[in-house]
Automatic annotation (TrEMBL):
<feature type="domain" description="Myb/SANT-like DNA-binding">
    <location>
        <begin position="86"/>
        <end position="176"/>
    </location>
</feature>
<dbReference type="GO" id="GO:0033862">
    <property type="term" value="F:UMP kinase activity"/>
</dbReference>
<dbReference type="Pfam" id="PF13837">
    <property type="entry name" value="Myb_DNA-bind_4"/>
</dbReference>
<dbReference type="InterPro" id="IPR001048">
    <property type="entry name" value="Asp/Glu/Uridylate_kinase"/>
</dbReference>
<dbReference type="Pfam" id="PF00696">
    <property type="entry name" value="AA_kinase"/>
</dbReference>
<dbReference type="InterPro" id="IPR015963">
    <property type="entry name" value="Uridylate_kinase_bac"/>
</dbReference>
<dbReference type="GO" id="GO:0006221">
    <property type="term" value="P:pyrimidine nucleotide biosynthetic process"/>
</dbReference>
<comment type="similarity">
    <text>Belongs to the UMP kinase family.</text>
</comment>
<comment type="pathway">
    <text>Pyrimidine metabolism; CTP biosynthesis via de novo pathway; UDP from UMP (UMPK route): step 1/1.</text>
</comment>
<feature type="coiled-coil region">
    <location>
        <begin position="129"/>
        <end position="156"/>
    </location>
</feature>
<dbReference type="InterPro" id="IPR044822">
    <property type="entry name" value="Myb_DNA-bind_4"/>
</dbReference>
<feature type="compositionally biased region" description="Acidic residues">
    <location>
        <begin position="1"/>
        <end position="10"/>
    </location>
</feature>
<feature type="domain" description="Aspartate/glutamate/uridylate kinase">
    <location>
        <begin position="234"/>
        <end position="444"/>
    </location>
</feature>
<keyword id="KW-0665">Pyrimidine biosynthesis</keyword>
<keyword id="KW-0175">Coiled coil</keyword>
<feature type="compositionally biased region" description="Low complexity">
    <location>
        <begin position="16"/>
        <end position="39"/>
    </location>
</feature>
<protein>
    <recommendedName>
        <fullName>UMP kinase</fullName>
        <ecNumber>2.7.4.22</ecNumber>
    </recommendedName>
</protein>
Amino acid sequence: MAACDDDFTLLDDPQNPNSAPPSTATASHTPPYQINPYDNDSDPFDSDPNSLSAKRLADRDDVHSGTSKRTRLPSSSGAGDYRKDREEWSDTAIACLLEAYSEKFVQLNRGNLRGRDWEEVAAVVSERCENQSKSVEQCKNKVDNLKKRYKLERHRLSNGGVATSHWPWFKQMEQIVGNSIAAKAAAEEEKSSGIGADSYSTRQTKRLGTVVNSPGTQINSMKLKPSNNLRWRRVVLKISGAALAGSAPNNIEPKVAMLVAREVSIACHVGVEVAIVVGGRNFFCGDAWVEQTGLDRCTAYQIGMMATVMNSVLLQSALEKLGVQTRVQSAFSMPEVAEPYSRQRAIRHLEKGRVVIFGGIGAGTGNPLFSTDTAAALRASEIHADAVLKGTNMEGVYVCDARNNSIAAEHISFRELASRGASPMDMMALTFCEENGIPVGIFNLHEPGNISRALCGERVGTLIDQTGPVA
């Protein structure tokens, strides 16, 4: 038996068929690698000639294009997936996005969407497109891209003389972007020409709202409608505080407040711009306290000013519950409750389809010794209103003093009303309206339908103007 050393010897035996043939040692003369200190790719440890040539070609392309060489960082898998998802928008997803964006855009009276609004849009798109979940950033980027594409399409149509566009989303983007551009252009044109009574009548067609009933809430579905079909386009509605009280003293009747809100919303949805001045007699009557207690008149009227703001906030809540955006403005500082009064801001709110409520006594005029009727007349002149309508407990201006046997006049002049002496409206306010050519309507607001009909220009109650009845 051979030893272990013998076995290894046999493996090296040239006679053994399993032994490998002897390898001939050949001296390989490799030229030394020249390192160029100015070449970033002259790496002696880089053994892949293909990668070197690729790098040199990339550098050469950068030099020819005039750009500097930049190192690309490898992107993470999450960023790659996000970019892939952002670019993959099916027609169904785009349709859902535009529909959700349009609904929210209209609900905000064509205002910009905020963070919570975008979250709702993304949630709606993800819910309607079951196979595609979209984030807020994806929805924002897609809407921005669609707006850019719309502007390019509009530019192509205007320069090429083409009447129609074959882009499938052109009409929907026209409703979102096109109307906003037209409104801005009209506003700039109006500003350049100056604001006046003549230029005011030739303003842009305003954005009007239609109520869309939904299972949860009601929102405004905005559409464009010409205002020349309306008798009065902008109206100041004066609501008596005593009328708000109903049958309960020192209180506000919820049914009356909701009736006013419903009637005003109807008028807003057909295109009437409504500003409201509300009294505070249902909470506090300054005249009665002055007569009974001898309280200082300024102090009593200042208390009444705060009562009018209370009524304004209550009416704002009732209107917004019906989907009508409402702003309360006050002449004295109450930032937590109301906006500071600004004539330009009030006009802008009205142009956007919002209802503006001015606090009445003092809160409307800034002076405590003026009545709410005077505040209504003053605000109507400042915002260029077409009429002042006062809703009270009476049917209008009665011909006789005895209320039980009298009949409300349908049409009467300022002069005739002043000669009669008795009037359901403050004489200072009537004089101010007469001097500024603003007609006044007085009607009973408790009758269902009277407020909306009066705001739309129908003959309700008594109309007071400079001419009076024509024989």
